[in-house]
Write a structure and sequence with these properties.
The chain is built from 19 helices and 29 strands. It is an alpha+beta fold. It folds into three domains: 47-148 and 150-204, Protein Transport Mog1p, Chain A (3-Layer(aba) Sandwich); 226-580, Beta-lactamase (3-Layer(aba) Sandwich); 610-708, Lipocalin (Beta Barrel), CATH 2.40.128. The strands form six sheets. Strands 11-10-21-20-19-18-17-16 form an eight-stranded antiparallel beta sheet, sandwiched between helices.
Length: 710
Amino acid sequence: MSVLPPRASHDNPVSVTFGPASRQPLALSRTSLRGPLVGLLSMALAIAPVTQAAAVERLPIPDQAARAPLAADTGMSTAGGTRYMAPAGWAVERGADVTWLMPPEDDAWVAVVDARGATAEAALDDAWSRLGRSPGVAVRLATTSAPRDGWTHLGTHLYDTPAAENRLLRASVFGRDGAWTVFVAQMPLEVADRRRSQLALIGGRILPAGQVRESFEGRTPRAIGAREIAQLNAFIADARARLGIPGVAMGLLQDGRVVYAGGQGVREQGQPDPVDEKTLFLVASNTKAMTTMMLARLVDAGRLQWERPVKDVWPAFRLGSEDASKRVEIRHLVCACTGLPRQDYPWLMEFAETTPEDVVARLRDVVPTTAFGELYQYSNALAAAGGYVGAHLAHPGQPLGTAYDRLMQDEVFDPLGMRSTTFDFDRALSVAHASPHAQDAQGRVSVVDMGLNRSIVPLRPAGGAWSNVDDMLRFVGTELARGQLQDGRRYLSADALTARWKAQVALGADAAYGMGLMTDRSGGVTSLQHGGSMLGYQTGMLWLPDHGVGIVLLTNADNGAALMGLMRRRLLEVLFDGEPLAAQELVATAARLDAAAAAAHRGLRLPADGIARDLVGDYRNPELGPMQVRREGERTFIDFGEWRSEVGTRQEAGGAASLVTVAPGAEGYEFIVEASPTGPRLVLLEAQHRYVFEQDRRAAAAVASAGARP
């Protein structure tokens, strides 16, 4: 799960850390090329279109309104025996060759087809034939996953839809013994974004006829000794080499005892300083679990209740809907279940003068797009408000940031002995810390400019903590001990602590989000976990409450997200003698990342071509603030003041031109060029939001006036 947005993800329980959905081809997660800012579905533009002249041909589908929606998640099967799940609230239409799954929104569907063909490509062609059309656009990216769950082929085809459509068209091909099932999804990205958990449900249990998924339920885990530690470290070393991760720190707990804490690699590429258990990393959205632990302390002290309306604690608190403002409870701020859409670009693009008070005030403009408890929608700003509500209650009259920092120190960090953990960037950067890394436009692992990571400071309850393996193990150990400290003292009641573990909203077939934590029951083993993603950092923690085992994993590269997604599986394999699937999937994942990077850069002109020269000037968006397009020699940059990036140009055949950022870690933001009566404007798309940058004539006039003065 991440703090970073859907450009590419800052935390996505459904896609990134230790989560099952990241292993599902139909989970519609786009491999993040731009680092943490590349989220799950919202990143469907991560691989930007380059050669498309015509819009995607709309395929005829049955009338959703004529079909009663499903009352509950429902098991389905094709004529060939492939089993899958259909989500509650969706309409289902069965045809001779195709089953249509349709969410309530118009022009959105998933089609399930039993196809024929000697190869996966032939089966995909046959599926489109049975749908009655061709896709109308070329395949932009085709990748495969390692065999699993009885499937010998798992392939994904992402189609080259025009950038301005902000639309997903994706086919997933499952094959075994010459039989094929194809899932085709077409929908606006705003629909895919808010229904990502339901798409993960569909993709989470696709099984061939007669297949029983591997389960570790009822097994006793191995004691973690030298052999098991070596196996996990060997997997991490392999991942570092394949994925280009300079450094990784890992910690392991079992039965209340730290059995390993250490690191591999270096803090910064090209420098000799090693990563170890004391190296600080920006742990990003792992902070959410720390924030909810602080809230649990207030609950334990009788100062707060999870079900208490927020307005009872803070009468001035408002959301964009008066009804939602009245109904929202403390637990809703941290459960990703209120229906507020993810909206990260406002805090990423302009943050130098932003205060925690501004973060809370901006929520007055955000309206829920789904009902309370209906769907998982991840809001960093709302989670930050959860921390600030606790701070306001504990220290009224103090600035929210000061009050929150003090409260976290008093209620979490000091009692747990987390002596190195801090929200102070300058303090963290003055001691042994890992530098962030991402690939540049040439595919080289490069150090990321730390500037954009400071955007999280005003939202720090959602993702601003720096920590290390030693401190994170103390946190995980307290979770495993259900609130009891290592010296036997009671820090937090088990009821208050484990209330955070309880599912508040589904994340797919086997996972759910609680309060700042995710539960995952895949493989027959329950785990609690969270992850964090900021530019150049991918981190996570996970524990098995029924088995007394915990792990912390901290990495200093965007590609660390792939290691996060596989580490839960590898841990279960080592503990329960599972089939060695993680290593195979690591190889496939590395190949997918390479293919996705190549696709993202295909057709990108760098330095930017003549299109960029005509766009030089000052721009402004009411929500994201001012932006400049500047030329420096042959290179072109976009500059938000707080951060900047060189841009390349991309031109769709017969279609829109765009500027695309290429700075390591902030790669892939695409500004689509549109004409207007007042001159060119630039459009930036977030999954459920559209930001238009108009030319700022006032700024241009001021510059001209200043230049005319004697």
